[in-house]
Task: structure prediction
Amino acid sequence: MEITKDTLIGELLRAKPESAEILMRYGMGCIGCPSAQMESLEQASMVHGINLDALLKDLNK
Result:
C-alpha cells in the first residue's frame, strides 16, 4: 500500500496498524477519535502543524 497525502487515517490504521506509533511520534495523539478516522493525512498534518513530506517518508519506509 502506497501511503499518500490523501490516505485516510482510519484506512491507514486498518492496513498498517504499526503506523499508529509513527503518527503518535509526530504528535497525532487523537488517531483513535471517530472524526480522525475519516481525516486525510494532509488534513491532519495541517491541523497539527506537521511536515507532511517527512511524515509520508516515514510511513512509507
